Write a sequence for this structure.
């Protein structure tokens, strides 16, 4: 591994400076569970690693009237250990508690999961179905991007030189909202998703009609996919297994999987159908409880 | 692009097993390398060096982490606990260590320090963890020798 400097800025401005100074010879370090592996395997050859955890905004976790703000470096365990967050953002909890094992969850952040931009990332689809926005800062100031538009290709994001992720913001879910994330892996824990699906839906006050829905897919394309048609197909309908099945068909149409050692195209599409139906069913149960 | 000169070593101030240490380390070295090479604590083991096996598990400010996936520099001002700090007075074994011996929960022993540090963290926070919980908690620790059952039995024995 190429030896690198360790920089630990304490403000957003200092972090932007450090990242901009080294350009593509530097990367941010949050929990380190991807980046340290990647520097060792030679995927990145760096002169500097910029630890963003000493920037207060990056480790802040705040639940307010408007919603939830997750500092980009907040580790998974802080999210699932908060009972109030767990009640409001069930899709997020599903993901935060299945990334790696306990040691990984002590460190791994959803921000790192998003910036790593792996097609099979477990954290990104749940953010999408919770309507999350990514707040970034860079040499040109701050901006916000919907999470479904953040990843451009495997390992590539909208982040420009010197720009980094500050926080992820999720609106407060309305009454009648439910969400879920599930993945298929051949083991019980500690594996990479063959397919992952996140779903959410919002019921009307009477609980007999779906007012909004989202379905997002992992590991079936170069980036996580918001299956717009699948979510839209549910709007205005009564929640039913037939409606969920139809959404599963539309989600499978939106999937662009490849065949590899984890599964072939047909198997992955079938998993999309099954997991869409199952996550919508769980989201419905959660919306009703 | 020209390669930057090798970065200078840095001074790390950290507390390991209750003792303050000042160590000279390379900024790109992991906490695992820092503990073994700079602090001379070879109880912490390297298995995979990529976060999968848990042999390098230590506690960092009270949470278990894979020390191969932490930079030594990140331990600045923090509390680190390794297997060397588990026995209460350096003489008597911790109940987990005693139970591992009695239940033959180790063969080659490479995985053992990681299992002990991880299991201790669980029993400290959830003394009544049931078998499912113990198995889930230890899913990030691999053992190629024992087949796990003896390890789980040892942890349950240490619960008393
Ligand atoms: C044993 C093991 C098991 C794993 N299991 C899973 C799993 O089940 N599911 C899953 O999805 N992933 C898994 N991972 C991958 C990894 O843990 C996750 O992707 C994790 O969420 C990454 O977060 P981090 O904070 O550790 O990121 P880091 O490693 O710190 O960073 C990841 C990437 O994002 C960049 N980055 C980080 N923070 C910022 C920022 N604020 N601004 C800009 N760029 C930034 C870094 O430069 C790097 O390129 C696993 C990894 C290991 C080692
Ligand atoms: S050596 Fe760190 S997890 Fe294997
Ligand atoms: S005793 Fe040999 S790996 Fe566990």
């Amino acid at each position: 591994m190429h030896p690198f400097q360790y920089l630990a800025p304490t403000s957003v401005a200092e972090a932007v400076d450090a990242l901009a100074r080294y350009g593509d010879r530097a990367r941010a370090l949050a929990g380190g569970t991807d980046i340290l592996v990647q520097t060792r395997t030679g995927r990145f050859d760096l002169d500097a690693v910029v630890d963003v955890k000493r920037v207060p905004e990056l480790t802040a976790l705040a639940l307010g009237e408007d919603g939830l703000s997750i500092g980009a470096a907040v580790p998974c365990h802080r999210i699932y250990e908060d009972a109030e967050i767990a009640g409001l953002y069930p899709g997020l909890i599903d993901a935060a508690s299945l990334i790696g094992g306990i040691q990984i969850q002590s460190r791994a952040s959803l921000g790192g999961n998003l910036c790593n931009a792996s097609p099979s990332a477990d954290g990104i689809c749940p953010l999408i179905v919770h309507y999350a926005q990514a707040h970034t800062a860079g040499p040109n100031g701050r901006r916000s991007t919907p999470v479904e538009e953040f990843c451009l290709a495997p390992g590539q994001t909208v982040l420009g030189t010197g720009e980094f992720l500050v926080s992820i913001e999720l609106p407060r879910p309305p009454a009648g909202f439910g969400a879920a994330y599930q993945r298929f892996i051949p083991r019980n824990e500690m594996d990479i998703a063959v397919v992952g699906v996140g779903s959410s839906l919002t019921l009307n006050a009477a609980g007999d009609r779906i007012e909004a829905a989202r379905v997002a897919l992992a590991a079936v394309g170069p980036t996580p996919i918001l299956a717009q048609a699948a979510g839209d197909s549910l709007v205005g309908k009564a929640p039913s297994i037939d409606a969920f099945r139809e959404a599963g068909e539309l989600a499978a149409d939106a999937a662009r999987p490849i065949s590899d050692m984890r599964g072939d195209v047909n198997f992955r599409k079938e998993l999309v159908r099954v997991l869409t139906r199952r996550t919508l069913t769980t989201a419905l149960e959660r919306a009703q409880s | 692009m020209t390669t930057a000169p090798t970065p200078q070593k840095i001074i790390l101030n950290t507390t390991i097993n209750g003792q303050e240490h000042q160590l000279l380390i390379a900024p790109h070295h992991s906490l695992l390398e820092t503990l073994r090479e700079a602090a001379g604590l070879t109880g912490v083991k390297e298995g995979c060096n990529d976060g999968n096996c848990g042999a390098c598990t230590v506690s960092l400010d009270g949470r278990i982490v894979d020390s191969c996936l932490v930079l030594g520099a990140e331990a600045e001002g923090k509390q680190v606990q390794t297997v060397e700090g588990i026995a209460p007075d350096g003489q008597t074994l911790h109940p987990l260590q005693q139970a591992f011996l009695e239940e033959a929960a180790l063969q080659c022993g490479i995985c053992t320090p990681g299992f002990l540090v991880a299991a201790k963290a669980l029993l400290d926070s959830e003394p009544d963890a049931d078998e499912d919980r113990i198995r889930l908690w230890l899913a990030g620790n691999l053992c190629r020798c024992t087949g796990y059952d003896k390890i789980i039995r040892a942890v349950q024995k240490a619960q008393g």
